[in-house]
Write a structure and sequence with these properties.
Elements: H1 2-11, H2 16-37, H3 52-74, H4 85-105, H5 107-121, H6 127-148, H7 157-162
Helix pairs in contact: 2-3, 4-5, 5-6
Length: about 160
């Protein structure tokens, strides 16, 4: 029984991915703290000002970074599943396509392409169904935000055809 405990203790190694997350948390906490220290303070009598909330969030992120680094060193994170790259590529391609086409093709077509490629990334391989469905849903969203709420969203040829 003692051999099982020693073998499991020697198998436990630091989790380097969690260390990277901890470093990221430290960086974000540092940037927030630095930015909060440089906020202009208005003449006030209370100690609570515009920098209080960012300082508290920075402190919380710093504590989470310490906790993550400690847990990473102990190797207490559960084993992660293998990451599949193809769905991530489909979703990133959809986001890039939307950003590139938003001004040229308009909100409905660009967001419809994002919808279709994201659906493909989540396992719906029939682009000929998800692309028109995404464009129709995006057009309805555009019409609600643009016409009813009077918000400005990029209009393309489809939007100019109806409005």
């Amino acid at each position: 029984m003692s051999e099982d405990n020693t073998s499991s203790a020697t198998e436990r190694r630091p989790d380097w991915a969690a260390f990277i997350i901890a470093v990221f948390l430290f960086v974000v906490a540092g940037v927030m703290a630095w930015d909060a220290l440089h906020l202009k303070t208005i003449a006030q009598y209370d100690r609570i000002g515009p920098a209080t909330a960012p300082q508290m969030v920075a402190f919380g992120l710093f504590c989470l970074g310490i906790w993550t680094a400690f847990e990473a060193w102990r190797g207490d994170f559960p084993e992660r599943d293998r990451q599949e790259v193809a769905p991530v590529i489909w979703i990133v391609a959809g986001l890039a396509g939307q950003m590139l086409l938003l001004r040229v093709a308009g909100f409905s077509i660009a967001t419809g392409i994002l919808f279709a490629l994201t659906a493909r990334g989540f396992g719906k391989p029939k682009l000929w169904i998800s692309l028109p469905l995404g464009i129709v849903l995006s057009f309805v969203v555009w019409a609600i935000f643009s016409q009813l709420l009077q918000l400005t969203l990029p209009a393309g040829p489809l939007e100019h055809l109806f409005f």
